[in-house]
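Usage example:
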Amino acid sequence: MTEYTIRQVADKTGLSMHTIRWYERIGLLDEIERSTDGRRRFGDRDLDWLDLLVKLRATGMPVAQMQRYTELVRAGAATEPERLRLLAAHRERVLADLATQRECLALLDYKIMTYGGTPRERHRPKEDQ
Amino acid sequence: MTEYTIRQVADKTGLSMHTIRWYERIGLLDEIERSTDGRRRFGDRDLDWLDLLVKLRATGMPVAQMQRYTELVRAGAATEPERLRLLAAHRERVLADLATQRECLALLDYKIMTYGGTPRERHRPKEDQ
DNA sequence: GTTTGCGTTCGAGCGCGCTCCAGCACCTAC
DNA sequence: GTAGGTGCTGGAGCGCGCTCGAACGCAAAC
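Running the assembly step on the lines above writes:
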C-alpha cells in the first residue's frame, strides 16, 4: 500500500503536476485520497490508471474520449461491450497511424540518403560530408 | 507541365485550401505561379514539395521546424549538411515515436483481450462499483 | 517567530495549427 | 445583365491540451 505525492506521480508518469490535477478536475481520475493537511496521496491503483491514460494520450486518443471511457469504467461491468468497442476502434486508429508513420519514414530515409547520409549509420561523425 | 488549381491540390494532398494558402503565407511554399486572373496554378514541383510537407507534419514535425527546413532549402546547397542533420534528428523522433506507439498498442491489445476473455478489469479509476 | 518548501484552489492564459469570414474579383452560362 | 461558381486577401477566431499565476495553508527548519 505504497503512497505517492503528486510530485512523485508527475515524475513517474511524465505528466506535470498541473496536468495531473487538471485530469482529476475534468473527471479522468476519481477523487484522490488526501492526507490530513489536504495533500493528494496517490496509491498504486491511481498510478496504474494514470499509466493507461498516458498511453491512450500517447497514441493520440482525444481527452474527450478518455473521459467517455472513464465514465464507462465507472458505470460498471455492464458497459464492457462498449468499452471494448471504444478501445478496438482506437486500436484501429493506432494501427493506421503506425502504417502512415512507416510510410513517411521511408520518404525520410530516402531524402536522408540523397543528402549523403546513411540512415542506418546516422550516428557516425561527419566523415563523409 | 501539368497545372493544378488549389482545389485539386487540396484534394490530392488532403490539406484544406485554407491551409495551403496559409502554408504559402507563412513561407512554407515559394510564391506560386498565378493565372492571368490571379489564381494560383500549382505545378508538379509544388505538389512534390507539398507532399514532403504533409509527410513531415504527419510524422509530427512542428510547423516552425518545417519553416526552418524550407529556409535552408531556399538558401542553397551550402545548407545541405544542416538539412541532413535536421531530417536525421526528425527521423530519430519518428523512430522513438513508433516504438512508443507499438508499446502502447501492446497494452491496448492486452486490455482488448481481457474485455473479450475475462469479465474482471485490471485497471480502473478506483474501487469496484 | 519567520522563513522555506511543498502543496492547495480557481480561473485565466497560451501556443499550436489551423479554420473561417467578409468583401471583393473574375469567368462562364443563361 | 445577372447568377453561380471559384478563388482572392487580410485578419479574426477557435478547439485542444495543457500551463501558469495569484493567493493561500500547513509544517518543519532555523
